[in-house]
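Fes1A
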Amino acid sequence: MEAMQAQTVDVIKRMKEITLVMKTPEQVLEEQGVTAADLEDMLDELQEHVEAIDMANDLNSIGGLVPLLGYLKNSHANIRAKAADVVTTIVQNNPRSQQLVMEANGLESLLSNFTSDHDVTARTKALGAISSLIRHNKPGIAAFRLANGYAALRDALSSENVRFQRKALNLLHYLMHENQFDCNVVTELGFPRIMMYLASSKDAEVREAALRGLLELARDKPGGENGSLSEDNEKLKQILQERINGISLMSAEDLGAAMEERQLVDSLWNACYKEPSSLREKGLLVLPGEDAPPPDVASKHFEPPLRAWAARPAEDTNVGSEKKPTPLLLGPGPLPEIAHGQGTSNADADIGDDHHSGERL
């Protein structure tokens, strides 16, 4: 415990040192021989520290959040991109830090970079930070709408950068899924035709994200029989048929990799035209061995552990309070009745202590 406390103190101390550097004017740092690469390395280190939710929230307490947001306006594109990356880590699954960044006008700076930065990587990183900042954050979503964020998303979809397109499509799908009103906004701004175009992209992830967005619109019913896509019915049918033809020509290996795309094409066809797609007739919708999805054994290993803990439903945190089976006591001891009673009490106490200790960590 002493070692862990000492390590925490060291991290806070180091974060204060980084904060001091971030507060130092760029010109002064250059005069002292600090390069842009040095600052990128420093931000990399800061990002590692703020993986822990407590440290992410403490960054504001020690005065480091505002200087970090200031780095979004740095003259070096790589530093602007890296600063947005750190902000993403800070606000991900962290309502408290989301609120702090909103209060510090962080959304405005991120939107500025997203819409106006000349460097596409900086724009992409800013969009990633915006996505994490407004996710499950109603004030953030409202502010995004008021700042004409949808127009910026439309511009991003017109980019030639596939990573930028993917991030924009994923955020767009999230917003539509959260609120039916956003489906109307998306339709009015002409997104359906852009997504139809992207559904034929050479990038598989862009195609899937575009199909996912179109499916969300197809399930939105106030605009007509096929929801928000009714005006482009024939065009969509042509695009889906082209995708079916393309899937039919895939090798066995490519078919396996395109499982989600196959399912999206069929679901979208069914939602719009009230009948299964020809993928079913051709036996391409479900391949041998795909009847049941494989168990998810990997995702939990690729999520930051503390963020995973924070996002866990509240009921999961009461595991330690459940009654545990009495441990087997070996060797001579008291009478069985007494041993059983004492064993249960001690075991439950130990488990409860371990659980609450884990929560503090």
